[in-house]
Automatic annotation (TrEMBL):
Sequence ranges assigned to domain Histidine kinase in this UniProt record: 135-350
InterPro entries for this protein: HATPase_C_sf (IPR036890), HATPase_dom (IPR003594), His_kinase_dom (IPR005467), HisK_dim/P_dom (IPR003661), HisK_dim/P_sf (IPR036097), Sig_transdc_His_kin-like_C (IPR004358)
UniProt protein name: histidine kinase
Naturally occurring in which organism (per UniProt): Malaciobacter molluscorum LMG 25693
Gene3D superfamilies: 1.10.287.130, Histidine kinase-like ATPase, C-terminal domain (3.30.565.10), PAS domain (3.30.450.20)
Assigned keywords, A-Z: ATP-binding, Kinase, Nucleotide-binding, Phosphoprotein, Transferase, Two-component regulatory system
Pfam families reported in the protein's UniProt record: HATPase_c (PF02518)
Record bears the keyword ATP-binding: yes
One example GO MF annotation: phosphorelay sensor kinase activity
UniProt-listed Enzyme Commission number(s): 2.7.13.3
Top-level taxon of origin: Bacteria
Reaction equation(s) it catalyzes: ATP + protein L-histidine = ADP + protein N-phospho-L-histidine
Length: 350
């Protein structure tokens, strides 16, 4: 086949590829395509051409390889314009162009694949957990209600007694009964939470907040964290997804709990404020846990962004909140710092 492809044509071909592509000569970047500029978040090629290729491609000390579409590729990290590390796989080929030796490096950005993997993994784990909780709930129901009825019988018997001390047992029986009711209620709440019925319901937002707090209250109590909800009596019902909303609020509360611990704060306090703004319901959650360092506040909603490396933070909590809000609630979430801590504001369209 006789073709006359010139440099312009080669450039047009490279720019039409999905993969990021770098043309390297003697270790220096000779040219790059549009996909690569996009992956690395540069504005133009000129910022890259002439640099050492190892400036954007971090050669790993221990070489790692990865199977992708049944082929084995080298796994590397790319450095973006802003210094972020981007997981990628690459393939290097030697080519000759006009009698000169070049290396052509093609690169696939793995971020999106990784994100899907982790989300899927998280979802399947949630489903498995839901099944387990459901089984526990089932097994506990009978003994819990048996305990309740034994207590009721004991109560009747003590009431017949003339003995002052035995009469006092009654108060204790009531206490035990409250604990039993509390246990049945929490296990039901958890079971409903994990149920996979993604349907909108008419919800009283006050109830949603109550359920969420019931779920997390024992942890808050054990750490001496106070929580205060500013309920809105005049709020009407909203038509929305209950479990997702609970999950979002739980994620934010859990972050506050982490922050209290990290910053060693003794008089932890969380406030939840509800209000209406035009056709939005606004939930503002504030804490006095020291706030989010200003240099990272713009990154907290990014996937995998975490400062909890020792605690195995996933960096997915706030990212999931944002995705769920945008997808299911036509909503938004924002973070800012206030005097002694942070403030997360959620807007849900109603
Ligand atoms: N209430 C808060 N106070 C201080 N920092 C916070 C708070 N909430 C979130 N952050 C910061 O945002 C980061 C991302 O949170 P998240 O997405 O939930 O991931 P993870 O909790 O796994 O780290 C946290 O690592 C933390 O640095
Ligand atoms: Mg978190």
């Amino acid at each position: 086949m006789q073709t006359n492809i010139n440099n312009k044509d080669i450039e047009a071909i490279l720019n039409s590829l999905i993969e990021g592509t770098i043309l390297v000569k003697n270790g220096f970047i000779e040219n790059v395509n549009d996909a690569l500029i996009q992956i690395l978040e540069y504005k133009s090629k000129d910022e890259l051409i002439g640099n050492l290729a190892t400036g954007v491609l971090i050669p790993s000390t221990t070489e790692k390889f990865l199977e992708f579409n049944k082929h084995i590729f080298q796994e590397v990290n790319l450095v973006s314009n802003y210094g972020d590390l981007i997981p990628a796989i690459l393939k290097i080929n030697d080519i000759k162009i006009q009698e000169q030796d070049y290396k052509i490096v093609t690169i696939i950005d793995l971020r999106e694949f990784r994100e899907k993997d982790t989300l899927l993994f998280k979802q399947s784990r949630l489903a498995a957990m839901g099944e387990m909780i459901s089984m526990i709930a089932h097994q506990w129901r009978q003994p819990l209600s048996a305990m309740s009825s034994i207590l009721a019988k004991l109560k009747i018997r003590t009431l017949k007694s003339k003995n002052e001390e035995i009469l006092n047992f009654n108060k204790e029986f009531d206490n035990i009964n409250n604990y039993i009711q509390y246990m049945s209620k929490t296990i039901d709440d958890f079971r409903n939470f994990f149920k996979d019925d993604k349907q909108k319901e008419y919800l009283d937002i006050n109830d949603v907040i109550d359920i969420t707090i019931t779920m997390i209250k024992p942890i808050l109590d054990s750490k001496g964290i106070k929580i205060n909800v500013n309920k809105k009596e005049e709020l009407n019902k909203i038509f929305t997804f209950k479990n997702e909303l609970i999950q979002i609020i739980l994620n934010i509360l859990n972050n506050s709990i982490d922050a209290f611990e990290e910053n060693n704060i003794k008089n932890g306090k969380i406030d939840i404020n509800l209000s209406y703004c035009e056709n939005y319901l606004r939930i503002v959650i504030t804490d006095n846990a020291g706030g989010i360092p200003e240099n990272i506040i713009s990154k907290v909603f990014e996937p995998y962004f975490t400062t909890k490396h020792e605690k195995n933070g996933t960096g997915l909590g706030l990212y999931m909140c944002k995705v769920i809000l945008e997808k299911h609630f036509s909503g938004t979430i924002n973070a800012k710092n206030i005097e002694k801590g942070s403030s997360f504001s959620i807007d849900i369209r109603i």
